[in-house]
Amino acid sequence: MRARLSLLVAATMCLVLLAFLVPLAVLLRTVARDRAVVAASADVQSLVSLVGTAEPAALRLSAEQLAATSHRPVTVFLPDGSVLGSPAPRTDAVELAVRGHSLTVDRPDGYEVVVAVQGRPDGTVVIRTFVSRAELTQGVNRSWLVLAALGVTLLLLGLFVADRLARNLVAPIAELSSVSHRLARAELTARARPAGPPELRRVAGALNHLASRIQELLRDEREQVADLSHRLRTPLTSLRLEAESLADPADAARITARVDDLERAVTSLIQQGRRRSTGDAARVCDATLVVRDRVAFWSVLSEDTGRTVTLDLVTEPLPVRVPADDLGAAVDALLGNVFAHTPEGTAFAVTLRPRPGGGAQLTVADAGPGLPGVPEVPRQSGGVPASMTPVIRGISSAGSTGLGLDIAHRAAQASGGRLCLSTGPLGGARVSLELGPPADRATPGSPAAFTSA
């Protein structure tokens, strides 16, 4: 925008300067020509009074003196054919002046000024002088150079002023853009400094108000989630008491362990909501540690349902740009789908590998019936192709809530990765979750996306 404003000012000033300087340059050339012709005519007129009274010798002396002082040839043609002053041929203009006509002739090499003086007893005397092209344009080139320098100076001065004004106008716009990008990166404390024209100051104020309002809404939403999660403690406490009162100690211990797991999940949800409301949530975790912990949790249930688990995890840490709670929720969603949508005894495999360029790639594949048929996508879903329907929030073709794959998809997208659905080597569904590296290790790449193989 700054360059365009400067270009607009430059174009406008060029048009104005051309409209002003071109006519002025033509006027200067005309004035110089008229000045030279008038000076030559004045020289000729100074001899007119002598022609009628002076003797030829005195007239010759006057003509020679005039030619020497005016730096142009002055010739006097007497009626008897003699020529006084500077030698010159009898041109057509001279022959015409003998008949009593004074005139100025424009020739290719200059101007010829001829004056006929009548009243002598022996006939008409013709006084001739010649103004060369160099004399006609004397000083014009220098004047044109001065005008060109003046025009360039004015243009540069205008561009400098336009650039300063454009910078003062563009700087607040660039700051507004920077603040909007920071808000898009969840930096809700970013605020714009009102500066520039009144319109931009109003935009900055509106953007700051919008950021404050978003921050308030998110804080209220997370507080409500935390409060709702906290309310679950009461039924959990009752469920724990019921489990402890069972007659079979083994059943009591098993159910109590499940209640403990559920209580830990509720506590984690409360803490996560509190941290996000204050903006200090951890954005990086070790994918190896989180995946191993969640697979260990689901392995107990897989033993109860007769499922074979193939676990292939790397041993070294794999840092990813996802909070541990979000990654744990995504792993729980993927493994929960296996247990919810495949028959008991269906085997599944979990693989965790480093991702090229940094990050990690988590793959969950099962030997079930595969992805079920997907219905037509409703209009409110935004026109997503049918192959992507399983990740649309709230839509499920298997009678579930439709949140599982969406949770995993959002976790991958937030890290700069993607979610891929395909048919796995076991014949069932294969879900691949690509997680991006931390910000200080990220490499340029394509934005987060969803693909279906």
Automatic annotation (TrEMBL):
Protein's UniProt keywords contain Magnesium: yes
Ranges annotated as spanning the membrane: 143-162
Coiled coil: 211-272
Domain HAMP: residue ranges: 167-219
GO cellular component: plasma membrane
Region (Disordered): 432-453
Top-level lineage group: Bacteria
EC number(s) recorded for this UniProt protein: 2.7.13.3
Pfam families found in the cross-reference section: HAMP (PF00672), HATPase_c (PF02518), HisKA (PF00512)
Keywords: ATP-binding, Cell membrane, Coiled coil, Hydrolase, Kinase, Magnesium, Manganese, Membrane, Nucleotide-binding, Phosphoprotein, Protein phosphatase, Stress response, Transferase, Transmembrane, Transmembrane helix, Two-component regulatory system, Virulence
Protein name listed in UniProt: Signal transduction histidine-protein kinase/phosphatase MprB
Source species of the chain: Micromonospora polyrhachis
